[in-house]
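Q: Give me a protein?
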Amino acid sequence: MPASIFLLIAALSGLIAVALGAFGAHGLKGYLAPYLMDVYQTGVQYQFYHTLALLVVAVLALREPGRALSVAGWSFTLGIVLFSGSLYLLALSGTHWLGAVTPIGGLAFLVGWAALAYSAIQLSRKLNDAD
């Protein structure tokens, strides 16, 4: 079940990232100060990176579902919402307190990568035991 959910989230996140990237490149050019444009683009980049990570989690979960992969998938999802979402809102609204949310999203990304690493170690041990 989580594999199909993560695949759907990754697909939707990729769609949204492309749309927001295009909107930023074409619709916001000239409207945002260069600093805020950089903030916006950082949100798009990190959303793309972690959308791809979420896609990897979904594919791995099809083969070897497990708790660590679920933690990774939900952490990447939360990180996309909090990290990238707060940067989009900060850039578009200029509301600087939103910058306090961004590190929480970054922490979620770190948890996701750690959980993915743990899952890789578990899978490696399982494959070695099978030999």
Summary: DSSP finds four helices and no strands in the chain. The helical segments are 2-27, 34-63, 67-93, 102-130. The two ends are 29 Å apart (CA to CA). The chain has one domain: 2-130.
